[in-house]
Amino acid sequence: MDGSGVEASTTAAWMERHRQMYERATRHPFTVSIRDGTIDLSAFKRWLSQDYLFVREFVAFVASVLLKCCKQKDNLDMEIILGGIASLSDELSWFKNEAVKWDIDLASVPPLKSNLEYHRFLGSFTEPEISYAVAVTTFWIIETVYQDSFGFCIEEGNKTPPELRGTCQRWGSAEFKQYCQSLQRIADRSLANAPADAVKSAEEAFVRVLELEIGFWEMSSSQS
Ligand SMILES: Cc1ncc(CO)c(N)n1
């Protein structure tokens, strides 16, 4: 914290330090092809099916972040995280609606390898040894990759096909951006008060999320 009471942003420094990998996650050929209008619709449908399965696992992950939050001395962030869980309930309904539109039977979709790898990573956060600072930072970057990726698809000059606008709007909206910024403030505040080893673990988790997100786009593009 400097003399004015303003905390330097640790998360912003990491985005800078790992810029190349951040760009690979947020300007991936998969989402760039949505923006260009050249997206292969079978790849889009694969992403949609796999992401539904991802979000189901993500609910449990965010619940574990909420639990860690509630155990903090000052759990001021509780309402933001609880709001996040409430939005995930809407999101699951949204996926089910989209699946009907795209003629996908969600019940028969098996999770692909990169998705399972991501599930394992998310599952590791239920361990009580993983600190709130690490968990909430991980939560922030997972949401931010989608915000930045889909936000780009609705920025000026996009050729995003009309039937994909709703998807892009879901994560690319100004409202979702504000939510991500709230999470970023929470992450930065937690990191500012965390011991050095937790800060190091949080940075490792940040990089790991970027790798997993790249893997998820790759899987969606070409079924690996
Ligand atoms: C793979 C993935 N990452 C992030 C999000 C954001 O919620 C999502 N829905 N799916």
TrEMBL record:
GO molecular function: thiaminase activity
Domain Thiaminase-2/PQQC positions: 17-221
Reaction(s) catalysed by this chain's protein: 4-amino-5-aminomethyl-2-methylpyrimidine + H2O = 4-amino-5-hydroxymethyl-2-methylpyrimidine + NH4(+)
Keywords: Disulfide bond, Hydrolase, Thiamine biosynthesis
Top-level taxon in the UniProt lineage: Eukaryota
GO biological process entries: thiamine biosynthetic process
Protein name (record): aminopyrimidine aminohydrolase
Organism taxonomic ancestry: Eukaryota, Viridiplantae, Streptophyta, Embryophyta, Tracheophyta
